Amino acid sequence: MHDIKEIEHTADIGFIVKADTLEELLETCAKIFIENVVDIEKVETKEEKRFTIDFDREFVVIDFLRELLYIFETEEFVWGECKVKIENERVEFILKGEKFFPKKHKIKKDIKAITYHNYYLKKNSVWETQFIFDI
Hints:
Blueprint: E1 2-7, E2 12-19, H1 22-37, E3 47-54, H2 60-75, E4 77-87, E5 90-99, E6 113-123, E7 127-134
Antiparallel strand pairs: 1-2, 2-7, 3-5, 4-5, 6-7
Helix pairs in contact: 1-2
């Protein structure tokens, strides 16, 4: 189960996301990120890239989204699938996609940053987060 709600924010774009597990929450956030950057239907999952970040429970969503932005900007990689595993104070994630080609992958929105403004992560009956992309 996951639930996504886009929220109004002046000149930026924000989301509230709910999921049963933290891994599913992060996977959904990765999908939201890439769907706002390019047309995901045009992304072929022919390459696999593995990454890890330190697990900081309070800011794991921000850290994760910032790493995705860094991967997109520096490695010029777009993904159609993301799988997340959390263990031993590390977040391991596997992206399946391909190199970004401007003629194939038209930019929908230019995400400049992921902000701390109105950010939260909480766990009640489900995991819930809110984050904002600076565009």
